[in-house]
Design a protein that fits this description.
Blueprint (H helix, E strand, L loop, with lengths): L2 H8 L3 H10 L6 E2 L5 E2 L2 H15 L4 H9 L5 H31 L5 H14 L4 H10 L8 H10 L3 H13 L5 H8 L4 H12 L4 H10 L5 H13 L6 H10 L3 H11 L3 H15 L6 H11 L5 H10 L5 H16 L1
Antiparallel strand pairs: 1-2
Length: 334
């Protein structure tokens, strides 16, 4: 079969067939009397094999190796192709994400596009200082897509950069809250912590609602951060978790301060005092936990607290009794 017929039947151009010949991939079996290439059925089958391997992503050099190398291992080659394909997909996905973020910034000209690219690259820089500067400058000239800020905030390990990113997110409004809410459900504990920290700095009702939901999160760290933030916002739902924090001795000073701030609302005074007193009544608590509870009562006004401190001033545990007596003296002096 002459080269023109092979080209028509195989779909491979005559030029490519000549190229295969020059590389030694498919050498026509014979020549016609006029000197034209003549391909046998075996040659044509080899052409189809070449095209099949090229369709998998092999280069012509790799195709030649597959045909001619006696040590060729198909499984190894397929494994390499899988790895290369994954890398290519990852690179294309990264490019697509970057393009979407630039589009979300709604650039009005090439200068805006270039500035957006520069900011996005800076957010992904290996330099913590450069990332921090990018976060602090976000939105000043060219808006940074909130999706990029959220991704950076959820992955940032440097505390200074993380603070700058949370600040930038708070400035951007509530656009990133849905993505941050997804972060609360991440399988990675560090991501969940960063998510609740970021939500805590967004001062609006939707963020408050997310924090209230976070009080039932399976992650105790998330619950604690949510409680501290809600305490600062005057949300009563945080009281049980804050009392737990005092008992457990985890950020207990901050938790006691939050309870004191909540107690500035008259409607919550008795609830907080009763909650602390009830925990003090548990006979299984260690001395240190009871002392922390007594200290927390110092910031809670009202008769319930005064009565509890009076009783505690005669407690069998000397450390608790001394703490209660000191607080009573301070209250009387005040």
């Amino acid at each position: 079969m002459l080269i023109g017929d092979v080209a028509r039947r195989s779909g491979v151009s005559a030029r490519m067939l000549r190229h295969y010949d020059s590389l030694g991939l498919v050498r026509p079996t014979g020549r016609s009397n006029a000197g034209y290439r003549e391909y046998s059925s075996e040659d044509i089958q080899r052409i189809f094999h070449i095209e099949s391997l090229r369709a998998l992503g092999l280069s012509l050099r790799e195709v030649g190796r597959a045909f001619d190398d006696p040590d060729f291992t198909p499984s190894e080659l397929v494994g390499d192709l899988i790895r290369q394909t994954r890398e290519r997909i990852a690179a294309e996905t990264e490019l697509l994400t970057r393009l979407r973020r630039i589009a979300a910034a709604e650039p009005t000209g090439w200068e805006d596009v270039l500035q957006s690219i520069a900011l996005l690259q800076a957010l992904g820089s290996k330099s913590a200082g450069r990332r921090q500067r990018a976060a602090l400058s976000s939105g000043e000239e060219v808006p940074v897509p909130v999706e990029a800020l959220v991704e950076a905030a959820l992955s940032e390990r440097d505390p200074n950069v993380a603070g700058a990113l949370r600040w930038a997110l708070a400035r951007s409004g509530d656009g990133g809250l849905a993505l941050l809410a997804e972060g609360l459900g991440s399988p990675v504990a560090a991501v969940r912590k960063r998510a609740v920290e970021s939500i805590a700095e967004i001062p609006n009702g939707e963020a408050t609602a997310l924090l209230q939901d976070a009080l039932t999160n399976p992650d105790v760290v998330v619950r604690r951060y949510a409680a501290l933030a809600l305490g600062a916002r005057g949300v009563a739902d945080a009281v049980p978790t804050l009392i737990d924090m005092v008992v457990e001795g985890t950020n207990d000073v901050d938790a006691a301060d939050a309870l004191s701030a909540l107690a500035s609302r008259p409607a919550l005074v008795d609830r907080i005092a009763t909650g602390l007193v009830d925990r003090l009544a548990h006979g299984t608590l260690e001395s240190s936990a009871r002392r922390r509870l007594a200290q927390a009562l110092a910031g809670i006004p009202g008769a319930t607290t005064t009565q509890a401190l009076t009783e505690l001033s005669h407690d069998e545990d000397r450390a608790v009794a001394l703490t209660a007596s000191y607080i009573l003296g301070m209250r009387d002096a005040g």
